[in-house]
Write a structure and sequence with these properties.
With 299 residues, the protein is an alpha/beta fold. It folds into two domains: 2-99 and 228-298, Rossmann fold (3-Layer(aba) Sandwich), CATH 3.40.50; 122-224, Rossmann fold, CATH 3.40.50.1860. The protein is 47% helix and 15% strand. The chain has helices spanning 11-21, 43-59, 70-88, 98-106, 133-138, 140-148, 162-167, 172-190, 209-215, 225-239, 261-272, 289-298; strands at 2-6, 26-31, 64-67, 93-95, 126-131, 153-158, 197-200, 221-223, 252-257, 279-280. It has a six-stranded parallel beta sheet with strand order 4-3-1-2-9-10, with helices on both faces. A four-stranded parallel beta sheet has the order 6-5-7-8, sandwiched between helices. Helix 1 (11-21) links the parallel strand 1 and strand 2. Helix 2 crosses helix 3 (70-88). It is globular. The structure holds D-glutamic acid. D-glutamic acid binds at residues 6-8, 10, 36-39, 69-71, 132, 135, 163, 202-204.
């Protein structure tokens, strides 16, 4: 069973691509709605919360977890993989949403569909990234991209409160104006530099993807991050068949939340694109983040 984790609803856009692309697998989605959004939290909080929820997925039988949240991937993934996983669960694996995007951009290790559809043809390329404030501050996108493609330049634009506004169901017109403002800010930073492509580096943003496309110059392409992540998982499972569904598991999907399942399920359908009935992550009632952090520091 493959675990998929996000702070809340955003990961459902990735989940949709995963379940569509890999219909024979079994997925368990966990949204930490009781603590969402993560984008405005401190790095330490994001790390502790993410670790806790991934441990929940491991306990429920997931050997592989996709961290379907850019913020958590940017802030917590490397530390989880290096400091926690080798001792806590050495047989298990956590995959983030950055490496697939960077591989698609740089055309490195992109072998699912042949040449990456997102790798611009010329050597010097400029990529725009829209993301939460924490993701931008982590500099994970520019760092990972530059490590593989030093000639590529990356212009980042934080979009504070956009994920929350999407989640809260703010009127479409207000969302469009917000997106236009962020696109305007990024284009101003780019100046006369030709933008080749933008990455919507937050799992909520595909819901306002049309507003981004409308506000950007027509020749700037927008990467479909959920699809890129799904193609990357296909390739990963081909290399690591031990993480594929076991014969005793049935294909399908289960959805868990740390929040209120009824309220979560009502909003979730908008993100998943189909009815998405959540159950509560039994036995784990919301508790103050400070308690979680104090507990882990005492260990
Ligand atoms: N899912 C998060 C991301 O992809 C955004 C939501 C949050 O801030 O929790 O960045």
């Amino acid at each position: 069973m493959i675990g998929v984790f996000d702070s809340g609803h955003g990961g459902l856009t990735v989940l949709r691509a995963l379940t569509t692309t890999l219909p024979d697998e079994r997925f368990l989605y966990l949204g930490d709605h009781a603590y969402a959004p993560y984008g405005m939290r401190s790095n330490e909080e994001i790390y502790q919360l993410t670790r806790r929820r991934i441990a929940d997925l491991f306990e429920r039988g997931c050997d592989l977890v996709v961290l379907a949240c850019n913020t958590a991937s940017a802030v917590a993934l490397r530390r989880l993989q290096q400091d926690w996983l080798p001792t806590a669960a050495p047989q298990k694996r956590i995959l983030g949403v950055f490496v697939p995007v960077v591989e698609a951009l740089t055309a490195q290790d992109w072998y699912v569909r042949g040449p990456s559809p997102y790798a611009p043809p010329r050597a010097a390329r400029t990529v725009g990234v829209f993301a939460t404030r924490r993701t931008v501050e982590s500099r994970s996108f520019p760092t990972e991209i530059k490590a593989r493609a030093p000639s590529m330049s990356v212009i980042q634009q934080p979009c504070p409160r956009l994920a929350e506004a999407i989640e809260e169901g703010l009127a479409d017109d207000a969302l469009r104006r917000g997106v236009e403002r962020y696109v305007g800010q990024l284009l101003a930073k780019a100046g006369r530099t030709q933008l080749d492509l933008v990455v919507l580096g937050c799992t909520h943003f595909p819901l306002v993807g049309d507003h981004f496309r409308a506000a950007l110059p027509r020749d700037v392409r927008v990467m479909d991050q959920p699809d890129v992540v799904a193609q990357s998982l296909v390739a990963y499972l081909a290399r690591h068949p031990e993480f594929k569904r076991r014969p005793d598991e049935t294909p399908g999907l289960e959805l868990l939340t740390s929040g209120d399942p009824k309220a979560v399920s009502e909003i979730a359908a908008r993100f998943y694109g189909a009815p998405a009935p959540f159950r509560h992550l039994s036995g784990v009632e919301p508790e103050p983040t400070e308690t979680l952090i104090a507990e882990s520091e005492a260990q």
